[in-house]
Amino acid sequence: MTHRGLIPDTVSYNTLISGLCQAGRPLEAEEIFKDMHSNGYPPNLVTYSILLDCLSKQGYIDQAMGLFRAMENSGLKLDLVTYNILIDGMCKYGKFKDARELHTELSVKGLQPSNQVCTTTIDGVCKEGLLDEAHKAFRQMERDDCPPAQGFINGRATY
């Protein structure tokens, strides 16, 4: 890109990273992310979220967790979407304990778990077979005035 006189910006990098992720090439996306940073373009929350989602969905949970911690250290304000991306990936790949710990971290960070974060966590706990814990979490959602969506209740009736 630069050899043609075109200078990439954050949006260009985000587009390229997203495209690589959609093509199932997360490690190449991670390299572009590193290039972005080393070329003087600090990643923003969108950049981090694209790569975090890509790594999480494709089973690179350790890399995703490292990226998540780098986000924290960068000074970016993490949001519920960011947490949910990682919690969902952890649950899908059997890292239930880590997902529960990350869910607990929300309160420490002063974030109120959203309906989506709670239902993602409960789904993961159910898949782990910890039905008593899932029931407690479900009741806590009700106490926190965060009832799960009807689709969640209908979709989990088999547990």
Automatic annotation (TrEMBL):
<dbReference type="InterPro" id="IPR002885">
    <property type="entry name" value="PPR_rpt"/>
</dbReference>
<comment type="similarity">
    <text>Belongs to the PPR family. P subfamily.</text>
</comment>
<keyword id="KW-0677">Repeat</keyword>
<protein>
    <recommendedName>
        <fullName>Pentacotripeptide-repeat region of PRORP domain-containing protein</fullName>
    </recommendedName>
</protein>
<feature type="repeat" description="PPR">
    <location>
        <begin position="44"/>
        <end position="78"/>
    </location>
</feature>
<feature type="repeat" description="PPR">
    <location>
        <begin position="79"/>
        <end position="113"/>
    </location>
</feature>
<feature type="repeat" description="PPR">
    <location>
        <begin position="114"/>
        <end position="148"/>
    </location>
</feature>
<dbReference type="InterPro" id="IPR050872">
    <property type="entry name" value="PPR_P_subfamily"/>
</dbReference>
<feature type="repeat" description="PPR">
    <location>
        <begin position="9"/>
        <end position="43"/>
    </location>
</feature>
<dbReference type="Pfam" id="PF13041">
    <property type="entry name" value="PPR_2"/>
</dbReference>
<dbReference type="InterPro" id="IPR011990">
    <property type="entry name" value="TPR-like_helical_dom_sf"/>
</dbReference>
